[in-house]
Amino acid sequence: MEIKAVFFDIDGTFFDHHSNQVLPETMDAIRQLKANGYKVALCSGRAKEMAEQLGVLQLFPWDGYVGGAGVSVYDEQMNIIFEDTFTAAQCERIFALGKEYDICINSHGKYEFMTKPLNAYSKAAFDQFHCQVPIVREWDHEPLVALSAYEKPGFDWHMFDGIEGIEVQHPSLTCVDFMKTSVNKARGIAHLMKYWQLPAHAYLAFGDSMNDLQMIQEAGIGVVMGNGHEELKKHADEVIGPSWEPSLRDYLLMHHYIDDK
């Protein structure tokens, strides 16, 4: 299949957390990709506002953005073209369980807040992902797109099992994300590919964590970083070097998506 678009996960793929930067070689590579006619976009678990806090959306004239691991999809002007918010019943149950078990629930996106002040576990996650600390308040029945919770490593999250239409994902040792079962990165990408009027699977995808699984599986070519989750690597068409090396640029060069300039 001829590749028409390239998608990059952010944390641990496009943005390297060891050096706390996007490598210069990566920036050169995405500029060449766009100049060579490919659509270029980020696809992340971060809501758009969290990606802006990291500064990555401002780095480049992206052709689109898939945020919240597929919850929200944006065009080249960062206007929303698709969004799948939590239902009121799902929010009510998540926040009620958070209160019952004294767990901090964090809303990302347009409505950013957390239900408890930072503790050691939430601080670790905020520091890891370079996120701004939001205000502390209760949910005011706004439509929400991204919810996370924080606790100590190895915490048993069983209390959130059984919420209809919700699954719990584990992006880090001290954090879980609540995801609608109808949502994943591949489904978000499908909306953007349709918007671009491109074949559904004619894309190359780079990722490193388990919320990239469907994207890696459904991409025309799915590539996993060397620092990625070992289980995810089993599903990759190719595993490359880690995010702290110019692995993205090297792969794109090797497969002639860009030139050695």
CATH superfamily of the largest domain: HAD superfamily/HAD-like
Average pLDDT confidence is 93
What share of the residues lie within helices?
A: 25-40%
β content, as a range? 15-25%
Unreliable stretches covering 5 or more consecutive residues: none
CATH fold-level topology of the largest domain: Rossmann fold
- Derived from helix and strand composition plus strand pairing, the structural class reads alpha/beta
Q: How many E-type strands?
A: 14
In DSSP terms (H or I, runs of 4 or more residues), the helix count works out at 8
Distance separating the two termini:
26 Å
CATH class of the largest domain: Alpha Beta
Q: Over all CA atoms, what is the radius of gyration?
A: 18 Å
**What sequence of helices (H) and strands (E) makes up the elements?**
EHEHEEEHEEHEEEEHEHEHEH
What is the oligomer described by this structure?
single chain
Protein name: Cof subfamily protein (Haloacid dehalogenase superfamily)/HAD superfamily hydrolase (TIGR01484 family)
InterPro entries: HAD-like_sf (IPR036412), HAD-SF_hydro_IIB (IPR006379), HAD_sf (IPR023214)
GO cellular component, one term: cytosol
GO molecular function: magnesium ion binding; phosphatase activity
